[in-house]
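FORM 12-B: Structure-to-Sequence Request
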């Protein structure tokens, strides 16, 4: 059977994408039940990370350097949650993806340069020609794409507004449109394990960027189902379907996985997977509890056309009750 035929067969056999065992959100009881499920998952995941912290820690020299260089990003108040929401624009999706190898080390160097914490004591919000090219390179996918967004998100949090950073919103729109496309591709192939980590990373980062269409009820349900019941972590499924694995290998050029600084445990738990799940679930809880304008994404694929929008197409958030 061809790869395309196999993919179509799996999709036909899969349950409908819109089916959900979660209660509806249009009642206080339903909303409270979903909030309780998220809080329970977060409690178990953070408990796992706390328990495994001695095994996750980097060695002394490397750990000190990393903490020193990225120190601004872990300070209280650096990451500001969105108060205005917008949507991704499908017309901005790349027609083709460029073959490339993503270097996390090069991405880190550019982020350190942006933060102004490099060894040469440079001022923040400056970037080299190399980093300008790397962080705006079109056709990226996977972690390359999410790190490009992370760069411009960090620039916004740092208050960088000159030069290239005048176009920060444009690049965030571009990257999240393509991250939405990648997440939809991951959903179409049944959330096979190699795609889950970057899937949750995309929700976390684009959620911080104010893109409310990443908060879909069916995506929340999928993430909750990936948590290991005993350990409370996220990671390698206990049993991966062999045929589905073949499909994901066929789609690997869309969902390229790169070497990450993470701890993979013998029981299949992944420190990075778990951290990304915590970030994504925290975003779901935020929109559920605080902003009804974004809550609509948990009830339907897109916001109602009657929702008032601002001139730039973003949706003003209203504090929830």
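FORM 12-B RESPONSE
SEQUENCE OUT:
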């Amino acid at each position: 059977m061809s790869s395309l035929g196999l993919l179509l067969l799996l999709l036909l056999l899969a349950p409908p994408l819109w089916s959900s065992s979660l209660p509806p959100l249009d009642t206080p009881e339903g909303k409270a039940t979903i909030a309780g499920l998220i809080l329970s998952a977060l409690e178990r995941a953070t408990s796992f990370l706390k328990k495994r912290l001695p095994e996750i820690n980097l060695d002394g020299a490397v750990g000190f350097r990393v903490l020193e260089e990225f120190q601004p990003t872990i300070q209280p108040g650096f990451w500001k949650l969105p108060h205005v929401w917008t949507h991704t624009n499908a017309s901005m999706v790349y027609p083709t993806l460029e073959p490339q190898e993503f270097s996390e080390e090069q991405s880190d160097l550019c982020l350190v340069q942006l933060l102004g914490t490099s060894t040469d004591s440079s001022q923040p919000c400056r970037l080299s020609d190399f980093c300008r090219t790397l962080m705006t390179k079109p056709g990226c996918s996977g972690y390359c794409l999410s790190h490009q967004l992370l760069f411009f998100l960090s620039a916004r949090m740092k208050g960088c507004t000159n030069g290239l950073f005048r176009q920060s919103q444009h690049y965030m729109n571009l990257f999240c449109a393509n991250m939405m496309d990648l997440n939809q591709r991951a959903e179409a192939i049944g959330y096979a394990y190699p795609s889950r980590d970057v899937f949750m990373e995309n929700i976390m980062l684009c959620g911080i960027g104010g893109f409310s269409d990443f908060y879909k009820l069916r995506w929340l349900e999928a993430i909750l189902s990936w948590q290991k019941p005993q350990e409370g972590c996220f990671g390698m499924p206990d049993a991966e379907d062999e045929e589905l694995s073949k499909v994901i290998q066929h789609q690997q050029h869309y969902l390229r996985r790169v070497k990450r600084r993470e701890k993979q445990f013998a029981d299949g738990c992944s420190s990075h997977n778990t951290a990304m799940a915590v970030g994504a679930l925290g975003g779901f809880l935020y929109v559920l509890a605080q902003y009804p304008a974004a809550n609509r994404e948990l009830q339907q694929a897109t916001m109602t056309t009657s929702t008032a929008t601002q001139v730039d197409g973003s949706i003003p958030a209203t504090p929830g009750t």
